[in-house]
Amino acid sequence: MRYIFLIATILILGCKQEKVTTTQVVEDLFGEWDIFHVTRNGKVTKTLENGYLHFQADNTIKSNLFPDENYHTFSFEQNKVDIQGLKNLNVFKVQSLSNDTLIVDSKVNAFDLQFHLKKR
Fold it and tell me: Apex CA 25: angle with CA 70 and CA 12, to 5°?
């Protein structure tokens, strides 16, 4: 039994763990994302579907959810996208990110929103 424990420990410690850096996550955000599912306070809502988020390599973002058609500067730290120049929808917390799917949470007034997006 000791040998099994020893071998398992060696295998676990010997495996390389790949660190995901903030730079890698931001680069994975770049591109155009279409909203296909939204919940508001835990309930499905159709009002924000067909929206989009467009993250650019110069750390700017544009969306048809914003009150203007301008690109806004964003920063990314600790899984949070902070957008400058907006009063609402100015923070997105990344819950999940893969090469083609993004899930983010946000809060607007008393509403907790969760967006599910697909990359174009």
Answer: 170
